[in-house]
From TrEMBL:
The family this protein is said to belong to: Belongs to the FMN-dependent alpha-hydroxy acid dehydrogenase family.
Domain of life of the native organism: Bacteria
Name of the molecule in the record: Alpha-hydroxy-acid oxidizing protein
Key words of the record: Flavoprotein, FMN, Oxidoreductase
All copies of domain FMN hydroxy acid dehydrogenase, residue ranges: 1-382
PANTHER family: 2-HYDROXYACID OXIDASE 1, S -2-HYDROXY-ACID OXIDASE-RELATED
Amino acid sequence: MNLSDCHNIDDFRTLAKKRLPWPVFDYIDGAADDELTKARNTAAFDDVDLVPDVLAGVETIDTSCSIMGCRSELPLMLSPTALQRAFHRDGERAVAKAAEKFGVWFGISSLATHSIEEIAALTSAPKLFQLYVHKDKGLNASMIERCKAADFDALALTVDTIVSGKRERCLRSGFTTPPRFSASSLWSYATRPRWTLDYVFGPKFRLPNLDGYVSEGTGKAVSIQEYFNTMLDTGMDWDTAARIRQDWGGTFALKGVMSAADARRAVDIGADAIWISNHGGRQLDGSRAPFDQLKEIVDEVGGEIEIILDGGVRRGTHVMKAQAMGATAASGGRLYLYALAAAGQDGVERALTILKEEIERAMRLMGVTSVQQLNRERLRIR
């Protein structure tokens, strides 16, 4: 199977599985506990049907929209995800270049493998920094100041990872950051020589946004579960979020909001946007799918704050359903990580091409010429 054989996001997943050592693939693909929530995130879209209009004159269509004050050529964002150099040697650089080419938002994580400054210098695309609040207040302040200096367009505070979910696939494989070879996984690394050679002889794996504050995850290998459980601030509360918004001073979002009550609190502290997200099912297993919560949250705060639907997005029609239900845009991580792992920047660009074509096709078949025309009249719940 080659990149040209990939015609949907699941095809990229299949190719990524062939090209990655199994501990690395399972880190991307896995989720918490029984992985019920991960499965629900995508399945939730199947419970709502699209209702098309015909004879609508759709020769010319406009897929663009405004997200957090920036024009986006698609109603789709590439969510910030950690450790991208573990999946492909180019990591966040490849994603940033692909996002710029397609004119869409992308984000980098506090645990990115390329620095805030390097990514800022690389691209003019709208870019977001995802902040994990660490116990080390100096580190938090440092990352915020570096993002200001680098002119990041927005900061998103992740609020659903004060402790790590129990990611059982990672516990079984012994996956760490940086990745390390173990007896049980040695054969898998040996039979993926392209990945292994890139990792061993490529640039040293590091987490440069933590420079000067944390050795764990960069010079010292730890599991993600251990990192979250020892490094992140479990005392974070709404006062913390309000303080970070004030310290940042720019466009500010909360990532991981799942209840209407919390959406209202986000409005009250002056947030510009919320991500309805359960961290890809990697935290609280048994929680609701973001799409299932979207209507309730839109009914509470729609029109007062931008609402990004994050999680389970695999098709252009999923983006359409999210917008019709009231979301500003949709967002996802695995939808481009599989492609990054499969083929680097070329993979991400092919994934975005496929999703763009699916959105355009769906718009024409729905009888809309702009994404702003989508509304709940176009949906029926099964």
